[in-house]
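Today's session is about reading a structure prediction critically. Students often jump straight to the picture, but the first step is always the sequence itself: look for stretches that repeat, for charged clusters, for runs of hydrophobic residues. Only then move on to the predicted structure, which in these notes is written as discrete structure tokens rather than atom positions. Here is the chain we will use throughout the hour.
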Amino acid sequence: MKIATWNVNGIRKRQAEFTDWIARERPDVVCLQEIKAAPEQIPAEIAELDGYWCYWHGGKGYSGVGLHVARSLSPERPAFSHPPFDHETRIVTAEIPRAGAPLAVASVYVPNGGKDFGAKLRFLEALADYAAAFRATGAALVLCGDLNVARTEIDVHPRDRNPRAIGQLPQERALIEALIGHGLSDVARRLHPDDQQLYTWWAPWRNLRQRNLGWRIDYVLASEALAARAVSFASAREIGTSDHAPVTVEFDG
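Below is the predicted structure for this chain, in token form.
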């Protein structure tokens, strides 16, 4: 099973890049963030992707997420939903029937916090509670997306490390740890615990992306039993013109 997540920073601007990427990678689950479009604004060519059950959850010009599930993974349309703490169209979940425990996958775009830091903290707290509730059901959960927090110092290039910067603040990092503590595993660090150049976002100036001077703020967090079957993690810095890279995880089974 291949699960991919990408903050596209405007799906209409990246439509050609997105379709090329989908055709090349063919993920079983596609999570998108910052689509910046309401469902009726999604271009017809991608509104219903061939071979996928599609769900677009966005508003006009701001935020928004998408979640698309391959029909080969789920012969019937999954149950798509967004929890009560959703605001500004920032989270959608698909519940996918499977043999044994069902699988829930969420596409998540956490607020940056620059305009309303309190709202960011409240969202992260609610997201942790959401993960705890899923753990109690026994269902497998995968949270994918732009969490807008660099988990540890290793997740920020040394030149950008700043304990007073939003995205690196202790209270934000504590909430990420609380979220992971509800039975989840950070797949990137599980597979690459010491990689000091594993970034997913780069400020869009001074060729920082080309120089790989970035932050890791895009994640795939999976229930422990599923994470134990992860065999690869990739952040494709060379793909697309968004300030984020597509992130892909493959699981054995």
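Discussion point for the tutorial: The helical segments are 15-25, 44-47, 117-137, 170-180, 187-191, 208-211, 224-227.
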